[in-house]
Amino acid sequence: xLQDLLGAVTLGxxxxxxxxxxxxxxxxxxxxNFAHGSIFxxxxxxxxxxxxxxxxxxxxxxxxxVTVGALLSVLVHVVAFEQITxxxxxxxxxxxxxxxxxxxxxxxxxxxxxxxxxxNPFGFTQSSFQxxxxxxxxxxxxxxxxxxxxxxAVLTTAIALWLRHSRQGLALxxxxxxxxxxxxxxxxxxxxxxxxxxxxxxxxxxxxxLYTFYVGALTPESGETLIIKAFAxxxxxxxxxxxxxxxxxxxxxxxxTLVLTNFGGLWGDAISFSLIFAVLLLRPxxxxxxxxxxxx
Length: 296
Description:
- There is one protein chain.
- The protein starts with a helix and ends in a 14-residue tail after the last helix.
- The radius of gyration is 19 Å and the shape is globular.
- It has a two-stranded antiparallel ribbon.
- By secondary structure, the chain is mainly alpha-helical.
- It has eleven helices and two strands, in the order ααααββααααααα.
- This is Branched-chain amino acid ABC transporter permease.
- InterPro entries: ABC_transp_permease, BCAA_transport_permease.
C-alpha cells in the first residue's frame, strides 16, 4: 500500500511539472500549446542522441533537457504562434488557429524521432547516473523519486509565490485578465509571452529527463499520451490556477494508480478522459478556476 502511494506521488509530481508549464501559458498569455507533448519528448530525444556520443551525468542531462525544451518552445511561439496572432482577424480565431497549429507542429519532432528510432523506445542507459535504492521498513525509495518529488514541490511553490507576490508575476497575470488593458498599463506582452513559453518548455524538458530515468525509456509517442493527462489535470484544477494544477495532477495519479493496481493498465487513458468529461459537465471552471469574463 505504501509502495503504491509513493509511486502515485512520484507520478503525480511528473504530471505536475509537465502540466504546470502548459497551464501557465494557457492561463496567462492564452496559448494552449498542443505541441507541448512533442517538446517534452524531443528534449529527452536530444539527450538520448548526445548520450550516444559521450556519457553525461544526471545534472548535465537535466541542463540539456531544460535548455532544449525552452529553446524549442520559444521557437514554436516566435515562428508560428506570434504570426498566427498577428494575422488572425480576432482573438477567438487566433485561439482556434493556435490550437490547430500546435497539433500540426507537434508532428514535426514526432516524425524526426520516429524516423531516427524506427518508433522503438529510447532511454538513457549510457548515462553515468544510476538511481540508488534505499529500504525503509517495507518501503523501497530511490534517490531519483526523492529528486522528482522535491523538484516538483519547489518549482510549483516558487512559481505560485512569484505569480502572487512579484511585480512581474502580477503583470503576467494581468495579461491573462485583460491583455489590451495590460498593454495600456505598460506591460510588454511580447517579452512576457516569450519568457512564459521558455519557462513552460524548460519545465517540459525537466519532466522529460526525470521521467525517462524513472520509467527507463520513452517512445516517440510518449508526449502525445502525456498531453491528454496534462489537459485532464488543468481542466480538473482550473485553467490558470497553480494550486488547481497540483491538485489535478495528484488526483489523476492516485486514480490511475488505484485503477492500475486493481484492474490493470488498460484503463489509464480512460481515467483521464473520464475526469475531463466529468469536470466539464459538473464544474466547467474546474475546482479552483474562476468564471471568465470576455469583452466583445
